[in-house]
Design goal:
The chain has a 29-stranded antiparallel sheet that branches. It contains one helix and 29 strands. It has 432 residues and is mainly beta. Helix content is 1%, strand content 70%. 13% of the residues are buried.
Length: 432
């Protein structure tokens, strides 16, 4: 719906514009409403959107009020976020024109994100502004600061062209779970201290990143302190990477390599060394099908190729490894020093012995796990045994099978991980 009139005369415009639904590049908006009324004493501009849904985040009940005073337009914006609308955003800002620049000022505002209240420009600093040069299209962010209790975020930067830009980012004791995007497989905790300085110009082509996540915890498993150091030249577009995961003085993971073409199509060449690296944090990847994933990894691998299609090569030896199949009530342990080879986008087990932890029956396992950009996992695995426990369920009237079941023969697991084709040579059940 569209009705009203626009006029070049002052205080002579009145317009209402409504769209029930708009979709653009995977973002869907519902109930878009724009009102302009230059004679309204409360607001001259009103915008509301019922819902904005994207792949990673949803916004609800968005509205903005704008009122003009002289040559300045002030805004008050509020909306709710997350699937359950528990995040709340309240922004105050203004827009004006000064010396040929469009100036956007950030006034004291607040964000309630994951039950943590962040205050933006709490001290009413007049330097919290964004300047846009209408002639050369350059943009400058003088300062942006946010704080939550003893946590602090600072950002400043500028962009004049692809050969002249700058960015400064400082994070001081920021809780990782307050800023990391939600991932159902990884619950991340820790404290981030980070300093990032990026510059490209005729005289300065600095890239320095110095960061640490202290007390890193992944899926309720203590990992230690993770440190990363990166330096390079923005003109050459080449950067050196160094990283280390240290737990109580033991370096369980170290990394060293290079990153090329950061602002183009980034390519990575990174060597990783694992030493008594605990794999328990991977358990959530198994969802309801596999749990109690465990093991200690050591070895060397290389990650290489474009960031959107990383390849890997090398090998890992796994000790004290095992997993549980809840639907069958069975648990298995790998023999120590099981070798996993990494080739391109495949994880290969040439031959490994697994033992069930109840009856000590054994089988030989071999095959390949394959992925596409760490998604769309598939496998081609084979289990051979003359006797291994495959079923261990108590009697239940609702179950078709129960008791202790053993495999004598072979099983092939083939196809996408979400929909496997199980091919069984011979299955013998006992005790049902």
């Amino acid at each position: 719906m569209f009705k009203g009139r626009l006029s070049s005369s002052i205080n002579q415009s009145k317009l209402e514009f409504k769209i029930p639904r708009v979709s653009y590049k995977g973002v869907n908006s519902e109930n878009f409403n724009l009102q302009i009324d230059t004679q309204n004493p409360i607001y001259s501009t009103f915008v509301s959107i019922g819902k904005i849904s994207g792949e990673r985040y949803n916004i609800h009940d968005f509205y903005t009020l704008g009122i003009r005073k002289n040559d300045t337009l002030s805004f008050r914006s509020e909306f709710k976020g997350a699937l359950d609308s528990t995040d709340e955003f309240k922004f105050n800002s203004y827009q004006t024109v000064s010396d040929g620049f469009s100036v956007f000022g950030i006034l004291p505002s607040s964000v309630l994100y994951r039950d943590n209240l962040w205050k933006i420009n709490a001290d009413s600093d007049k330097n919290h502004i964004i300047k846009f040069n209408n002639l050369d299209q350059s943009i400058t962010l003088s300062s942006f600061e946010a704080e939550s209790e003893n946590e602090h975020v600072f950002v400043s930067g500028s962009y004049h062209s692809k050969n002249d830009f700058a960015l400064v980012l400082d994070l001081d004791h920021v809780n990782l779970d307050k800023v990391a995007s939600y991932n159902p497989n990884f619950d991340l905790k820790g404290n981030i201290d980070l300093s990032l300085n990026i510059r490209r110009s005729f005289s300065d082509n600095t890239f320095n990143l110095d960061g640490e996540i202290s007390d890193l915890n992944v899926n309720n498993q203590s990992m230690g302190d993770f440190k990363v150091f990166t330096s390079g030249n923005t003109q050459l577009n080449s950067y050196e990477l160094n990283a280390v995961l240290d737990r109580s003085g033991k370096k369980s993971l170290t990394g060293k390599g290079t990153l090329l073409g950061l602002d183009q199509k980034p390519r990575l060449d990174l060597d990783l060394v694992f030493d008594e690296f605990d794999l328990k944090f991977l358990t959530p990847l198994g969802k309801d099908n596999i749990n109690n994933l465990r093991g200690i990894a050591r070895g060397e691998i290389n990650l290489w190729g474009p960031l959107d299609g990383i390849m890997h090569s090398g090998g890992l030896k796994i000790d004290n490894a095992g997993f549980t199949l809840p639907s069958l009530n069975t648990d298995y342990q790998f023999e120590n020093e099981t070798l996993i080879g990494l080739i391109d986008q495949k994880f290969e087990i040439k031959s490994a012995r697994i033992v069930d932890t109840k009856f000590d029956t054994q089988a030989s396992l071999s095959g390949v796990f394959q992925h596409q950009k760490f998604k769309d996992w598939s496998l081609n695995m084979k289990v051979d045994s003359d006797r291994i426990l495959m079923l261990n369920l108590p009697e239940d009237e609702e179950r078709v099978f129960y008791g202790d079941g053993f495999l004598n023969g072979s099983v092939n697991l083939i196809g996408p991980a979400k929909k496997l084709d199980n091919r069984c040579g011979w299955f013998h059940r006992r005790g049902n």
